[in-house]
Design goal:
The chain has 728 residues and is of the alpha+beta class. It contains 21 helices and 28 strands.
Amino acid sequence: MSRPARMILLLLAPIGLLALMVFATERFAPFNAASGRLYLFRNAAWQAAPPVTGSPGKVRIAADSSVWVEARGLARLQDGRWTSYRAADFGTENDWLRGGFTLRGNEVWGALADGAVRFDGVQWRLYPEAVRSKQPASIVAGQSGVWLLDHDGNLSHFDGSRWSSESLAHSLPNVQWGETLDFSNPELALLADGSLWIVFRGLWCRDGSQWARVGEFTNPVVLGSSSDRLWIRERERVSTITAAGQVSALDVGPRRVLAVTAHENSLYLAATDGLIILNSGRMERVPAPDANHAVTSVAVAPDGTVWATTDAHVSATAMLLRSLPVLLLGLGALSLMPQLLRAAAGIPTSASPALRSMAWKIPGLLVGLCVGTTVLAVAGLRILPRIWPHAPSWALTAFVLAGVVAAFTLWKWAHRPPGPEFPSATNEQPKPMAKRIVAASRAAIPVLLLFLLEQGPLKWAVEWIHHVVKNPTLAMFVIFAAGMVLVMLLFAAPQILSFGFMYHALRRGDYQRALWWTDLLDLNREFRHDVLLLAGRAAEAEASARATLSKRQSPRMRALDLDALGEALTDLGRFADARATLEESVAVDVGPGGALNNLAELYLRQGIELRKALELIDRAVAAKVALPMGKRMDRHQGAVRLANRAWAFALLGRRREAEQSIAEARQAAVPGFLPVLAGVHWRIGMTWLALGQFTEARKEFQAAETLDPRGKYGRLGQQGIASAHVPG
């Protein structure tokens, strides 16, 4: 596959999978289905109303008998025809009536995040100043004007000419405003006598400039109101409250009432088991027109016609079964992504076992994360309100994230490999208990960052996505994908950043700082022996490599640790042990060919088996090139191998080939990586030394000493200069 074709695949494949997921969700997901319907009850029989776009919610009847319902904005039924009003009509970013809507005669008022909207029968007008926050909760209208309450306790009033606002943050005793775990929604009620009521963590009536508590309610919900009374529900108990504040119970039997309205001498109750009509002490139940549906809202027209909306009761099992196509498609898409990335990068299947395993690990990780966070969220909703009444919404986020940290820490502890601890920087002192705890719980760092972001920037980002992406299902998947990317970046950020700082220090030959970064929270500890080797601290590198080797499970990682151990033994002059270790590394996994090159250098240092050494170097060069992106990754290692090839040619007496390899090594060298560049100069110096070019050898040894004064190759350069074979 050509490079342009691979890039097109890389760009189009995620877009195609996302489009497929959006289609499947809108087609199959139960929570996205429009199951609600509108009916009218007349002459003791249900009749279906003309279908409306969307799923109808609350229903209200205007003075001119026109029917208004919430349905993707607002819709009006008049003369048998629907007229829909959306965000473009309101002048808002979206058409979600978060604070509901209300009628005053033929005038319609709605509460959205962008403000209050008013319909005068001809056109809509937006009042942005009506909502002080982006979270309107309830709106009512009457002779005293229009009242709007938000979740933060800001009460706005429209007197017909302008809006005014006041904060109720300290007006209702012991009431905590804002989003909380009990998902309480502040609601307003306005009676004909002008009395204003708030139903939120109790029942409150305005008395002049003060608010008086009525009854002993703790968390009631408004069901409806008439000219002289209102109805509320707490748990399954329904109560009637008069304008004078008298409370009485309303016996509705063993059912859950969702809405109440009054007409003449009758009460109409929307309930989970149908429509309940109370008249002169008599109760009549009218089953819902659709099986397994509840009547969710009810209103009565001036002519006595009852209008009601219904919605389906979907069991948890049915919801799960209907969600299976979406879940299976999502898992399939996640499983395909690593293969698509492999194909786009041009990596052969046989050379990417890690990518093949990712096809199962990524979906498993995401499913485990989704299931685990769901279980934690459910547990938090059960536990937190018991120990912290009216806990703010961020408490649930903190609870879930703390659970994730605890689960990660326990998993790391349960899967700790056997063997001794990593040696510390001094190679003797054990790791302090405090550092062990911090290292084990390092997931707390990205989790804390995620929690802080969730309190502000993430909310703004979600609002921006909803503003840009008009399709709610597509917006949901975009938010989910962006969230997963953010989580992965936050969890990977500490290791990526510490590796970047460690690598930067190592390139400059600052070994102490590089070691500090490898020790930080135990991040990038696998590079510790590599830093120690370049620093010339071979004994510590041996201890570090042996410690990590005892914990390795992957053959590739074991081979790399054996390679480092063999190099450390070579530097310590234990050539027999070094040879056995490097040969074991090659037998376990050739990988990028590092062990082949180090085994060849072992022979070159001893001046033995030179032809075999040259063969090993050629194999090392080929092994690196054969790896995916091998030509572009670790380019400095290519110069080292070419310099060793030149050294081998020189010891074999093949001068022309040695000089050609020297030129190739110089061209391949990476100027910014000082320790490795010093190693290239030292090897070229050994090459000139083998060819009898002492002056050239001295220059190379001096360059190695200058580039790496505190490291291994700086000291080897000093030894080369002081060698009796190099005249001073």
